[in-house]
Amino acid sequence: MKRLLLLTVAVLCMGFTLQAQRTISGTVTASDGSPLIGATIWVKDMMTGTVTDYDGKYSLEVPAGAETLVFSYVGYASQEVPIGASDVIDVVLVAGESLDAVVILGSRSGGRTKLTTAVPVDVIGAKALSTNPPAPLTQMLQYSAPSFHSTPQTISDGTDHIDPATLRGLGPDQTLVLLNGKRRHTSSLLNVNGTVGRGSVGTDLNTIPSAAIERIEILRDGAAAQYGSDAIAGVMNIILKKTTNTATINVETGTNLPNFLNGPKRAAGVVPESLIPTFNRDGQTYKVSTNFGFDVGKSGWVNVTGEYYNRASTNRSGNYTGSVYPDGYDDALPLDEFYRILQEENGFAEHQVMEIGNSAVRNAS
After folding, report:
1. What is the pLDDT of residues 163-203, one digit of tens each?
2. What is the β-pairing status of strands 247-256 and 175-179?
3. CB 211 within 8 A of CB 289
4. Which of 6, 47, 151, 345 is most buried, most CB within 10 Å of its CB?
């Protein structure tokens, strides 16, 4: 009797397990009826999914409690389909509108999209740029574009203020910058002192206010045959806004907290701890920008942008451990007094005697 009871319980558990899962199958096609090979199907909010085969067919074990299937394919708009009583779900995906934006960069023919260009083109919109911290345009692109590189320089003459910008690791003078499809002039600064792009002259992107930008198209390939030798690394085309009857105002601020989470102390063991001062808060930044536009006549328009960016200097020099006065110097101050005066006059921390870091920058455009 006991064995019979256990067998009955086991059969009931198996029946419950079989009822807890169900198999859903179907076909995923495009609007013209052609099957989509490799389309992704997964259960929403669950780690269960599959892909379609050569004929666009799929079969998926759906766990209990699943309510929605998500269908997606590159270049097509995703769809969410509720799981009903039927075990067959066929889906028709529609080509996504986001990939139909015309790209005017890198081709002599018009009407091309990101899917039909022969070379890789990144299109970075204003929304993507606005998610970055308060920073000049070069730093925004550093966070957004994979092949773009620009970092603030230090102890580098005027390059402290004009950040060299490069594509694909080549020189700043080999990246062509266009503004609404027209060539942007280069700066008059020659990069020196071992900085990025030493011996070359690039374009100062930070003179272009980020609030005026609608999108940036970056051609990540050589285009010298079409644009000339200054496009060996690639081309950046900055498209400005044309909006009217709309006004925006943005205020952003930030600061550096070097001692947060004991940042400098993490260097202990590599750098003697006596050389690591307790850094002050520095590098305070704030950016104020506004953009507005208005119509002129029946078909004209004017769009105006103003931006002011201010970044305080930073100092990451270590503590000075050498002698301050030569032996026998009559007017020597006590060391504590000497360092106190330095801190009051220059804002240094502990035993710093020089400033090594980013210089202060003010930019209005």
Report:
1. 888 898 888 889 999 999 899 988 888 888 778 888 888 88
2. unpaired
3. yes
4. 151
Backbone angles phi, psi at 141, to 5 degrees: -70, -30
Please report the pLDDT score of residue 91 as a whole number: 94
Whether 323 contacts 316, CB under 8 Å: no
E strands present in the chain: 22-29, 40-43, 49-51, 57-62, 68-73, 76-82, 91-92, 121-125, 148-149, 166-167, 175-179, 182-183, 213-219, 234-240, 247-256, 282-296, 300-311, 361-364
- The DSSP secondary structure of 234-245, one letter per residue, reads EEEEEEEP---S
Model-level pTM? 0.61
Question: Which pLDDT does position 57 carry in this prediction?
Answer: 94
Residue type, 262: N
Helices assigned H by DSSP within 85-205 = 126-130, 137-144
Computed on alpha carbons and rounded to an integer, the radius of gyration of the chain in Å comes to: 30
Euclidean distance between CA atoms 289 and 310, whole angstroms:
12
Contact criterion met (CB below 8 Å) for 163 and 140? no
Residue in the block written with tokens 């899917």:
115
H helical segments located in 2-109: 2-20
- Token pair for residue 104? 């005017």
Residue 116: the pLDDT is 55
**Phi, psi for residue 232 in degrees, rounded to 5:** -65, -40
Which stretches of the chain drop beneath a pLDDT of 50?
1-2, 4-19, 109, 111-112
| Domains in the chain, CATH or no CATH each | 2-97 (2.60.40.1120), 123-240 (2.170.130.10), 247-364 (no CATH)
Whole-number Å distance between alpha carbons of 297 and 89: 54
Give the 3-state secondary structure of residue 278.
coil
Residues pairing with 76 in the sheet: 73, 95
